[in-house]
Every structure is written in structure tokens, then in C-alpha cells.
Amino acid sequence: MGATTSVHRTIDAVWRMESAKVIAALARYTRDVGLAEEMAQDALVAALEQWPTEGVPRNPGAWLMTTAKRRSIDQIRRRENFNRKVEEIGRDVQEATPDASEGIEDEIGDDLLSLIFTACHPVLGTEARVALTLKMLGGLKTEEIARAFLVSDATVAQRIVRAKKALADAGVPFEVPEGPELAPRLASVLEVLYLIFNEGYSATQGDDWLRPELCAEALRLGRVLAELAPKEAEVHGLVALMEIQASRTRARTGPGGEPVLLLDQDRGKWDWLLIGRGLKALERAEALNQPPGPYYVQAALAACHGRARRAEDTDWQRIATLYGVLAQISPSPIVELNRAVALSMAFGPAAGLALVDEIAGEKALKGYHLLPSVRGDFLLKLGRTEEAKAEFEKAATLTRNEREKTLLLARAAACT
Amino acid sequence: MRFMVFVRSPKPMAALNGDALLRAGVLLDAGDLVPDALGVSGYWLIDVRDHEEAVERIRRIPLPACVVEIRQVAVV
């Protein structure tokens, strides 16, 4: 590896580590997240120009911060409100930058939290929140985000520009929300992290390293948030959920890339370190004694599987109870369908069938292939093979997944 | 990528400032190893994007006179 390449790789690493902190600190001074992000990018360009010849500074984070702040001053000088802001920023820079070796690590927590809440502000659409979070908090480049979401660079760049403009137009303050505003804003943050995680988690095909990398990034951001907001049970719940789900990554697909269902997975391939971390995060959530939220309950459900070394050791009664809790917090026919499966596993197929028949008329389940598929499974277990066959055939006509269709037709054919 | 960071230090791991790794969301595990004649040793297990990030993150930790070895964990 050449010296320049080596420096560039170091710059990449430093950027991933420091960019969120630099943007967060700048946003506190400028009260403008868009400007802060642009100035941080300018500092990155300066690093790319200078470090290969002058060497990587001893404290690269402080160097980036100082450079970005100086550029912010230059930028603001060109703006109309220069008098007021330049005075504030000039004072801040003078106070904060003479000693470049001074660490920024310990002072940045609140700024970082404010940046998370700003990037995930509900005034933004989902795609914009996701792109902004990965860009400003994950330190991902525009092209990396584009590759991860299988869209063009221009699309992502446009989303980010529009998002920053929307934040400015809406006058979103750079702060951690308090009081009644906190819960919905936190929910928005958690939703973004889980979306990023799921985008990576569902990418079972392709050799692009960045899609699994999305899982890792969502997990890392979740862990950061858990340290910044340790008294929020749902944050620990989400971290627990992601840790436990991520633990199954290597077991989720077969040699041909085909999905392997949870109960059929080789649990020897599960990552038991991540399961242990997930269970600890769940304990942290429980210790806070807060009313259970949806992420906590989903994590508790995942933990029921995570605690079972063998599929037959699964505590289905607890799973059925937890689905009951989830159905109360987040009522949904899909949750009820899952509860029916759990009831069937815990108390027999008749219990599951009774619930499925209760919810069969739900509008949201119309055309949903898993309803007849699950019903067929219960009927088959009850020895009602003709009815089961009809249900599997119906499910096969509804699914758009060819592998699943083949499987369902095979199940129908086996009903004799 | 996971990296095992072995630290040979005169102090136990708990006395070293590994909190930055925790706050950065990259620390998966940490522990002491049985001391030997050369001093106390321990490890951090971290999850980062690449080797450069592992090195940069460890470089930021103000360690006393230590010998540090960073090794990538093989994925089976």
C-alpha cells in the first residue's frame, strides 16, 4: 500500500469516527445543521489536501473541528447576519481551539444527541431521515448510502439537500426535545434506526458489503444512543432487538441463498456473543420499570428464541403472552396472526385456528398469503387434510415469491 | 469486522480508559487475562469497519506504557 493510499484510508477512518461530533459541535454554534455539515465536509476536503503531504495530525479530530469552525466563520461573514453570529462563533473558536490537542470526546454527548434528534425530525420524510442520519451520524459518503439503498448518487444527494432545506424552513431547533415532545421524537429516532437495520437485515442477496454494513451501523448508532439516553427503556429495547436479530445473520440463509426459517436454523451458527449482549440490553430496559413499549416487547419475543439452545426448548407460552401484550400496545392483524402461531405451538393447533378464524375477515389480511398458509398448517395438524390442501393452494396463488410458491404447492400436494 | 485488542499493561483493564470505545458503540466485550511474569494483560473486543478504524480508535485511548496488539477475528 502506498503512503498516500494509507493516509487516505486513515482519513476515511478518522472521518467516520469524528464527523458526527464535528457536525454536532458546529451545529451548536451555528444553529444550522446544513451549514455545519457543509463546513465539516470542507474540513474533510482540507484534510485530504494537506494530510498526505504534511502528515496526519496528532489529534485529527481537533484538527477537523478547528478547520471546520474557521470555515464556518468565513462562511457566515458572507451572510447578512454576520455581525451577531460571527461574534458568537469567534468567541467560541477562540475559547475552544487554541489547544489542538484538547479532546472533544467527553464534551460532545449533548450535541450528538441533539444531532440525532434533528436528523430524525418528523418534519422530514422517512427516506430523508434515513439518508441524513447515515450521512451526518454514520459518516457515510453519499455514494455509499446510494449503493446501500440501490439508488443513484444524485437521488441521495438530492434527498440530503432537500432534507437540510426542510429543517431550515421549518426552523427546527438544534436541541434535545423535552417534556411531552420527547416521546414522539424518540419514537421517530428509533424508527429510523430500525429501518436502517432492517434494510441491511433483509438484504440476503448480492455481494455488496454495504448492505450488511447497514445492520452494523444501525446497531452502532443504537448502542451510542443507549449510552447517551440510558434512562429510556425503549432505546435499550431496540438495541436488544437488533443485537438478537443480528445474532442470526449467518443462520438465516442456506447454501443456495434460500431463506431458512427460525425454527429450522442451525443454532450453532447463531452469534451467542450478540445474544448475550441483547439479553443484557433487555435487562437494562427491564430495570427502568417503564411501561413496555413495542421495541421492548419485540426484543422480549426475540429473547425467548435466543434463550433456547434447541428449537424444542422454546417457551411458547411466554411468546403467546408477549404477543398478547404487543397486540395491546400496537394492535395489528399481523401481530394477531403471529399470536395464533404462538398459541398453536403452546396449546395445540385448535387454539391457533380459533384465533385465525376470528381475524380472517380483517381487511389488512385480505390477499396476505400467510393467512391461508398458517390456517392450512393448523388444519393439517388437526387432520383436516382436504381443507388444508385448499388453503395451501390459495396461499400459493397469493404469494409473489417463487420459492415460497413452490413450497406451498408441495405442501398442498402432500395433503392426501 | 471484529478485532481483538490485546493490551499488556501494568494496570488492570478496568483502570484503562476504554469508555470511549463504549460510548462509540464499538465495544463488544472486555476482560482481564491471567497475569504473567510480564505484567497484567487484558483485551477489548471491538466491532469496527476496518483495520484503520481499529488502529485509530485505540490510538485515541490514553494508555500508560503498554504493548498493544490488534488482531482481526476470523469469521467462521
Topology of helices and strands:
The complex is a heterodimer of chains A (416) and B (76).
Chain A: H1 3-30, H2 33-54, H3 60-77, H4 82-96, H5 109-119, H6 126-136, H7 142-148, H8 153-170, H9 182-201, H10 210-228, H11 233-246, H12 272-287, H13 294-306, H14 316-329, H15 333-347, H16 349-359, H17 370-381, H18 385-398, H19 402-413
Helix pairs in contact in A: 1-2, 1-3, 1-5, 2-3, 3-4, 6-8, 6-9, 7-8, 7-10, 9-10, 9-11, 10-11, 11-12, 11-13, 12-13, 13-14, 14-15, 15-16, 16-17, 17-18, 18-19
Chain B: E1 2-9, H1 19-23, E2 27-36, E3 39-47, H2 51-59, E4 67-72
Could you explain how this protein is built, in words?
- The complex is a heterodimer of chains A (416) and B (76).
- Chain A is mostly helical and 416 residues long.
- Among the domains of chain A are: 1-98; 109-229, no CATH class; 367-416, no CATH class.
- Chain A has 19 helices and no strands.
- The longest helix of chain A is centred in the first third of the chain and has 28 residues, at 3-30.
- Chain A is elongated, with a radius of gyration of 25 Å.
- The termini of chain A are far apart.
- Chain B has a single domain (2-72), classed as Alpha-Beta Plaits (2-Layer Sandwich), CATH 3.30.70.
- Chain B is 18% helix and 43% strand.
- Chain B has 2 helices and 4 strands; from the N terminus they run E-H-E-E-H-E.
- In chain B, strands 2-3-1-4 form a 4-stranded antiparallel beta sheet.
- In chain B, strand 2 and strand 3 form a beta hairpin.
- The chains are: A mainly alpha (416), B alpha+beta (76).
- The interface between A and B is medium-sized, with 23 and 18 residues.
